[in-house]
């Protein structure tokens, strides 16, 4: 019984510390917020995290049914589904938030930003670890799907609408379906049109399909020039 109350007190302290950091994350990362009161009262992402922190508290002391009930209440009011078994660090900012899903075995580091419609899900019915592990300072953009028991490294960014099915190293930017790394260690990969200053911006991400088409056009142009020179004449007809 003494151990139970010790765990109860410890989890209670951790819960309130992380809730405080969640509020600070809104103030630091959303230019639209004007006051602490607005951050606390008007952000469904924060409300979802509040329900999650309480549900996770009960989950950790093995009151699983109560945890799931609280989690479902939070989902009803916010449109954000976070399983109470997920492990979430400090300073998570869920912006807008509607239709965000975070699965049971998901692990999220500190200072992560998630936009509306993102899913951190599994790929099957197997038991055990089946959801992704998200590192620190990661940005997951609108509608992105990260599916499977792999790691997304620290400081990485997942572009809007991307479907990520395999490991992402630290300091990378991933876009497309399926997801492809287009920026690694803050450097553009070959044929990438990415800007250097990508951070929370979801517009300046590169388009891998456009990149492939540009590479093909460039290669075709080089081959045509080579053929014209070899024939010794210029043919205006496009083949």
List the helices and strands and how they pair.
Elements: H1 2-29, H2 36-41, H3 44-60, H4 64-78, E1 81-82, E2 87-88, E3 93-95, E4 101-102, E5 107-108, E6 113-115, E7 119-121, E8 133-134, E9 139-140, E10 145-147, E11 151-152, E12 157-158, E13 163-164, E14 172-175, E15 180-184, E16 187-188, H5 208-231
How is this structure best described in words?
This protein is an alpha/beta fold and 239 residues long. It has two domains: 2-205, Hexapeptide repeat proteins (UDP N-Acetylglucosamine Acyltransferase, domain 1), CATH 2.160.10.10; 207-239. 38% of the residues lie in helices and 17% in strands. It has five helices and 16 strands. The protein has helices at residues 2-29, 36-41, 44-60, 64-78, 208-231; strands spanning 81-82, 87-88, 93-95, 101-102, 107-108, 113-115, 119-121, 133-134, 139-140, 145-147, 151-152, 157-158, 163-164, 172-175, 180-184, 187-188. The strands form three sheets. Strands 3-6-9-12-14-15-16 form a seven-stranded mixed beta sheet. Strands 1-4-7-10-13 form a five-stranded parallel beta sheet. The protein has a four-stranded parallel beta sheet with strand order 2-5-8-11, with no helix packed on it. The longest helix has 28 residues, at 2-29.
């Amino acid at each position: 019984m003494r151990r139970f109350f010790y765990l109860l007190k410890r989890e209670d302290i951790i819960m309130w510390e992380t809730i405080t950091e969640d509020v600070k994350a809104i103030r630091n990362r959303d230019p639209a917020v004007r006051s602490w009161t607005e951050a606390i009262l008007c952000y469904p992402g924060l409300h979802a995290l509040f329900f999650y922190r309480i549900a996770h508290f009960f989950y950790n002391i093995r009151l699983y049914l109560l945890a799931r009930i609280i989690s479902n209440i939070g989902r009803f009011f916010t449109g954000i589904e976070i399983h109470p078994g997920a492990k979430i660090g400090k300073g998570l900012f869920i912006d807008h938030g509607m239709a965000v899903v975070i699965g049971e075995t998901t692990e999220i580091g500190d200072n992560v930003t998630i936009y509306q419609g993102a899913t951190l899900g599994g790929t099957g019915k197997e038991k055990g670890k089946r959801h992704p592990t998200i590192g620190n300072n990661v940005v997951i953009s609108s509608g992105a799907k990260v599916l499977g028991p792999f790691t997304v490294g620290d400081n990485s960014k997942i572009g809007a609408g991307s479907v990520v099915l395999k490991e992402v190293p630290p300091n990378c930017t991933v876009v497309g379906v399926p997801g492809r790394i287009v920026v690694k260690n803050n450097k553009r990969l070959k044929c990438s049109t990415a800007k250097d200053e990508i951070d929370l911006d979801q517009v300046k991400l590169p388009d891998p399909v456009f990149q492939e088409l540009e590479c093909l056009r460039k290669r075709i142009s080089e081959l045509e020039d080579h053929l014209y020179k070899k024939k010794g004449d210029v043919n205006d007809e496009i083949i």
